[in-house]
Write a structure and sequence with these properties.
Layout lengths: L34 H29 L21 H11 L3 H6 L5 H34 L7 H24 L11 H24 L4 H9 L3 H26 L30 H4 L1 H26 L5 H27 L3 H26 L3 E3 L2 E3 L1
Antiparallel strand pairs: 1-2
Length: 385
Amino acid sequence: MAKRPIFEEVSQATPAQTVPAGNLIDAGARGGPNMARGAIRAWLVVLFVMVVAMIALGGATRLTGSGLSITEWKPVTGALPPSSAAAWDAEFAKYQQIPQFRIENPDMDVAGFKRIYWWEWSHRLLGRLVGLVWALGLGFFWLTGRVGPGWTSRLLTLGLLGGLQGAVGWWMVSSGLGAGMVSVASYRLAVHLGLAFAILGLIAWYVFQLARPSGQILRARRAGEPKLFSMTTGLMHLAFVQILLGALVAGIDAGRQYTGWPTMGGEWIPSAIWDPALGWRNFFENAATVQFTHRIVGYLLAIFAVVVWARSRRSPHPVTRGAYTVMIAAVALQVALGIANVLHGAPLPEALAHQLGAVALFVLVIRARHHARYPYETSVRGTIR
């Protein structure tokens, strides 16, 4: 065996050190690091905006009484609206067969029908576009190897929930086509809206996850605040329950039947809060019960939000404290919008603002929760982003 020299040139022999690449979502199959992560995050932001628009358009469709204008569910062929006078007459004839026309709109003509038809048709079209953007985006990222381990199932779940949402939407609409019905069942409306918020919440969480490389996320988790995270999780669930209660209020127009505040019809606890004939259905069909419950849970949500915010002031992370301050400001704004809606009888602009306020609050709670779980690193030089 040859002896190694005492003095050896090592400048060329030292192997280059490799940096762990993390998962494929941080280093795309093509391009530089973070290419896939940034692209997928941008795609999710587009989906997020489209789902928010869906929620707003759905609210406008309900508030204008347009949700029952299309009486069939044709996911493919229904994408095209009537293109001739005869086609419009045929579509209007279908609407004339349902109770809503006979009871609420017996004097409606084709021109009036077109006004409500376009609301519902636009809502359904946007739903189809959301599905198309999801399918094209996921197909592209998956086929080009840009989706990292563990992310395929997450992104696929969004599409499956979107398909379920379409079926739930028709299940909701069909409830308003039966004998004696002039609107959809409130509990089905709550399921439909709740599923929309669940999809939106998942997208928001994924967007926050992809805001930083996976290495930073893993390091941030070690600095997380479990107590604050747990409290914010409870707040998120309570906010979701309040959103469902708001859907029940909207489903039976309870917000327009008691327009006083802080009392209801001059009473702190309305005398009509319980109808023995309805039994458990009071929680879905009694306007006094539904609105009173929504108010009480709103008060509890606001109080708990203040408690969570106060706890966040003890966080050593400035960005986390800032996220909770923005969240508590959204709570105050949403309470104000709710009171304004009650006092003014829930007109279209204010009702839509209240619904979008719920979207903003829910997302900001999720954002604060994410910061509690994965805080931004701080040093003597400030926040490390």
